[in-house]
Amino acid sequence: MELMARMEKTKKYARFAVVGALAAMVLFMLGIMGVLIYAKVQGPPPLAVPQSTLIYSEDGSVIGESNTGEKRYWVGLKEISPALIEATISIEDKSFYEHYGFDIKRMAGAALADVKAMSKVQGASTISQQYARNLFLSHDKTWKRKISEALYTIRIEMNYSKKDILEGYLNTIYYGHGAYGVQAASQYYFGKDANQLSVSEAAMLAGIPKAPSYYSPVTHMDNAKKRQELILQSMTEDGFISKEQQAVSKAAQIRITGEHAHEKVETAPYFQDVVKSILRSDLGIEERTIEMGGLKVYTTLNPNHQKVAEKVVKEQISEESDIQLGFVSMNPKNGYVTALVGGRNY
User: Fold this and answer.
1) Neighbour order of strands in the sheet with 296-298
2) Residue 222 — very low, low, confident or very high, per pLDDT cuts 50/70/90?
3) For the chain, is the Cβ count within 10 Å smaller at the N or the C terminus?
4) Is the pLDDT of residue 297 over 90?
5) Burial of 238 by CB count in 10 Å (0-12 exposed, 13-18 middle, 19+ buried)?
């Protein structure tokens, strides 16, 4: 009797455990469904970020730039070196095209490594998670931020293609020295556009976002070189490049410029003011959009005419004089303004 009672009690506990496990599983599934429904109802999050507005002269040279301190020039994936795309995926998120925003296997591996080391030693953020963090969140490590990051990641993955996510990530990530996105970074570090990068340069650039101040080739070339070699090895293991390409790229000499494109643009400031005024009054473009909407404004200014005009003004009127002046050069055939001076000193 005692044995049967014990068996009955055991069965009771077993049934309770099974029911509890099923209930937990149902609640978990309902929770997942709730999150997905919430993400779908919220819809696609806006992906707009501040971008530098550029003003061009008639010959295509840049005469002016406005930004909020973040130099960023948006480029499409087709305008980015394939080597840079491959290097970034190889070192940041090998399973980018397979996962749905979260790399569970990688997260488990990182958690195990952290437990063993009793500290945070490995990151497991996917490109999608990093993109969500860069767009919408601070970089603090609170649970609230982590939950928000997860929700934004789900919304991004549900509403945008992998191409859109990768393009957005590469155009928003910080590469140090005020350069945001691959185009500004390529121009700053190597003096060339993002589509012109070699495998060697791409591997070095892809290594910078992990710690921009520590891996900057401008200030810490040794650190940048070691990380570049790590990325070249990773690219070889992932099949992006051959061992021969790895060796050649590792040995290649890299020229670092360390200068922003358009850093000292001061051409025709009065002319630029008139252009911005026309954008506001005639085209109805808001000031915020003009300053950081990534506009490309093409004008009729002739740099040679402007240079001559400013030179004549400076030479003809003494610095001690109180005389002011205005000067406009116009093409009589079409009315294009080719030079403009609004005063002796802007």
Assistant:
1) 62-66, 53-56, 296-298
2) very high
3) N
4) yes
5) middle
Give the C-alpha separation, 320 to 340, whole Å.
23
Instruction: Give dist(CA 158, CA 42) in Å, integer.
Output: 11
Q: What's the rounded Cα separation, in Å, for the pair 156 and 44?
A: 6
Q: What is the full DSSP assignment across 256-322?
A: -----TTTT--S-HHHHHHHHHHHHHTT---HHHHHHB--EEE----HHHHHHHHHHHHHHS-TT--
Q: Phi and psi of 53, rounded to 5°?
A: -90, 130
Evaluate whether 327 touches 309 at the Cβ level (below 8 Å): yes
Distance from C-alpha of 39 to C-alpha of 21, rounded to nearest angstrom: 27
Average pLDDT for residues 325-336, to the nearest whole number? 92
CA distance 317 to 56: 29
DSSP secondary structure string, 242-253?
-HHHHHHHHH--
Single out the residue of 155, 175, 157 nearest to residue 73, CA to CA.
175
End-to-end CA distance of the chain: 104
Judged on CB neighbours under 10 Å (0-12, 13-18, 19+), 137 is middle
CA distances from 253 to 64, 225, 303, 336 (A): 33, 11, 36, 47
Tell me how many degrees the CA angle 167-170-172 measures, rounded to the nearest 5: 105
198 residue type, one letter: S
DSSP three-state, residue 339: strand
CA distance 322 to 237: 71
User: Are 243 and 250 within 8 A, CB to CB?
Assistant: no
pTM reported for the whole predicted model = 0.70
